[in-house]
Amino acid sequence: MAQAFDTYCADIGYEYALPVIEDWLADPAPKVRRAVTEGLRIWTNKPYFRDHPDISVKLLSQLRDDDSEYVRKSVGNALRDISRKHKALVKAELQEWGVSNKRIEQTYQLASKFL
Fold first, then answer.
1. Residue 55 has pLDDT above 90, yes or no
2. CB of 78 within 8 A of CB of 45?
3. What's the CATH number for 2-111?
4. 69 contacts 104 by C-beta, under 8 angstroms
5. Residues contacting residue 102 through CB under 8 Å, at least 6 positions apart
6. How many whole angstroms separate alpha carbon 14 and alpha carbon 85?
């Protein structure tokens, strides 16, 4: 599902796929939400997100408190990958998170590994 989602986004253009990306990130099924986070990895290697890494960080960060550990791990890993090229951007985003929530703390730990 993740690879098919990326192919779809690439075919129509990532900037034109943003409404679908946002819909899938809000889908009630964890497998669908994870398909987005995994399908678009490494986000900032994708044409649109390479030029707009802030958008990828904001989209992913929406799921920092997801009910599904499966999704949160994917989000944390994707943000960690982005931090390799955009350390200051990810660090600034993470500083806005309250980590008193265990689910957010888990995502934070994964995302901040290289900061």
1. yes
2. no
3. 1.25.40.290
4. no
5. none
6. 19
